[in-house]
């Protein structure tokens, strides 16, 4: 007979073959009859998601999850397989389709509010990465919920930024939506990026959702070109834009001196810059030099923060989301950063995915912010 101690709460399957998946899921369902599953799937395996959904329906096992460019398997990036993360008690969770249809904040609130009480809880949000107004939605959610929840989340989807279904439960697979999950408050989460801001400041004088149309009243790409040449000696053209943009993102400067990163991922025909994440009009910007990201300092901050919230992490499971843009910039150093994180935290298992934008609090139980280029780390507690 399999004992409870032989059933880890976080399991990676290198393929979606039915038999091994069924063995894991059936053992969980038998031992924890009220359990639920969070699944992380790489986009290369999207065609096989139906296998997992069918098994969960057959076992009456609640399933939620997302599709990402790749998975994190300890310190490696994998484009095959699936992560299964168990919660012994299936949490309140749901999918909201067509997120910007009607009043999105009211729809999210109507879904979540019945489950809230005086006890604080973690609100885990998973958006389709092509949602253009995530920052505004977070602002409106905070006006409704304030600090009754800890806000944590990521964006799912394709690294190509082409539309694709990327959010699912045991019955549905959808795009242009939101997955929400209410987790116990002890899923302590830390978010860090390690960028430092230079002194020069700009203003995004015209924006539209994720697009910067003008900076200081001039076409955005024209100003971006001048900054790259003046600050870093790089002659930027439409042809080499994709080669350089990920290495030189914008930083949004907030009143508390916190930097929120926005990575340009597309140059539009009109000279506007399409970024991962919303840029409000009249936002104060600075140009960040990604080579100055201090990986060791970032990992130190993550390790200290996780320990302060959760206690020693040795031997535990760590759910980690790593920004796809950060990996593009750091290249092989991204893997070294994960190795360093694994070693310094001492965790037994580092499970997660490449994300396309991240959500975290400005401070513990504070205001939710939408970020790029970060690592989001959370102790995974199945209880």
Set out the fold topology:
Elements: E1 10-13, H1 18-31, E2 36-42, H2 49-58, E3 63-68, E4 71-73, E5 76-78, E6 82-87, E7 93-96, H3 104-112, E8 121-128, H4 134-145, E9 149-156, E10 167-169, E11 173-174, E12 178-184, E13 189-192, E14 202-208, E15 211-215, E16 218-219, H5 220-232, H6 241-244, E17 250-253, E18 259-262, E19 264-267, E20 273-275, E21 283-287, H7 295-310, E22 317-323, H8 324-330, H9 332-345, E23 349-355, E24 358-361, E25 368-371, E26 375-379
Parallel strand pairs: 2-3, 8-9, 22-23
Antiparallel strand pairs: 1-6, 2-6, 3-10, 4-5, 4-23, 7-12, 8-12, 9-24, 10-11, 13-26, 14-15, 14-21, 15-16, 15-20, 17-18, 17-21, 19-20, 22-26, 24-25
Helix pairs in contact: 1-2, 3-4, 7-9, 8-9
Round the Cα radius of gyration to an integer and report it: 20 Å
Query: Largest sheet, if any?
Result: 8 strands, antiparallel
Alpha-carbon distance between the termini?
22 Å
Q: Which secondary-structure class do the elements indicate?
A: alpha+beta
Strand content: 25-35%
Q: Please count the helical segments.
A: 9
Helix content: 25-40%
